[in-house]
């Protein structure tokens, strides 16, 4: 049943309350019967009707139960054509590299402080006429 392929254009045609398709992680879901029942309200669903709702769906942090409901609405997969919008990235994927680079920056600051301390100590010792190390 879930083997049908839809283009972005096909999905975009289903953008009303009764006929509402959503794309989540490049799979196509028919939410027409679910819009009324959605615990988060129909407005948010209709905002992304006929579009890629991956980001909206993931940002809410839907429960496993919500994901099971989603699977029951599956009708097919998205076939991307050249020129179609790129897949929506999840927020987690973009946050990870930013964290790593800021940790690297913190470590570099410590390195500079330690090297500066050693240089200051050496300068002080030589100004006192003592032999270095
Ligand atoms: C077919 C797709 C969707 C399904 C099956 C679904 C299902 C659910 C379910 C079962 C809940 C109850 C809480 C939970 O179990 O996580 C929920 C809550 C919610 N949903 Fe969705 N949802 C879908 C799409 C969306 C979209 C596209 C949005 C857009 C922002 C959205 C926004 C919300 C919000 C804001 C809540 C929280 C409501 C509250 O706690 O008061 N949902 N959804």
SSE topology sketch:
Elements: E1 4-7, H1 8-12, E2 21-24, E3 27-30, H2 42-47, H3 54-60, H4 64-72, E4 74-79, H5 91-127
The structure holds protoporphyrin IX containing FE.
Membrane topology: Single-pass membrane protein
GO cellular component, one term: endoplasmic reticulum membrane
Keywords: Electron transport, Endoplasmic reticulum, Heme, Iron, Membrane, Metal-binding, Microsome, Transmembrane, Transmembrane helix, Transport
How would you describe this structure in keywords?
Flavocytochrome B2, Chain A, domain 1, 133 residues, metal-binding, binds protoporphyrin IX containing FE, Cyt_B5-like_heme/steroid_sf, microsome, 4-stranded mixed sheet, single chain, 4 strands, elongated, 5 helices, alpha+beta, heme
């Amino acid at each position: 049943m879930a083997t049908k392929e839809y283009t972005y254009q096909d999905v975009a045609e289903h953008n009303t309350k009764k006929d509402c398709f959503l794309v989540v992680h490049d799979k196509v879901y028919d939410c027409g019967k679910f819009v009324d029942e959605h615990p988060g309200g129909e407005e948010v669903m209709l905002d992304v009707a006929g579009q890629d709702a991956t980001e909206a769906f993931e940002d809410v942090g839907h429960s496993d139960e919500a994901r099971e409901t989603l699977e029951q609405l599956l009708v097919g997969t998205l076939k991307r054509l050249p020129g179609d919008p790129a897949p929506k990235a999840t927020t987690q994927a973009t946050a990870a590299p930013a964290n790593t680079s800021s940790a690297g920056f913190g470590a570099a600051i410590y390195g500079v402080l330690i090297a500066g301390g050693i240089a200051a100590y050496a300068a002080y010792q030589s100004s006192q006429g003592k032999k270095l190390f």
